[in-house]
Design brief:
Length: 59
């Protein structure tokens, strides 16, 4: 998401993808919970809860 948008801006100077990211994920969220709701956070939390609170390792 952010990384690909910022890489595009850095390499080509095109800011459309970066602007879209900021409009949706920064300016489009009133609270931090709104931001987390747009990410797969709920899925990770559910897996962690089902696994007894063990850390999730992403590789």
């Amino acid at each position: 998401m952010f990384r690909s948008a910022s890489d595009e801006f850095r390499k080509s100077g095109k800011k459309d993808a970066l602007k879209k990211y900021y409009d949706e994920y920064v300016f489009g969220c009133e609270t931090y919970d709104d931001f987390l709701a747009k990410l797969p956070y709920k899925t990770f939390k559910k897996i962690k809860d089902l696994d007894g609170g063990q850390p999730i390792i992403l590789s």
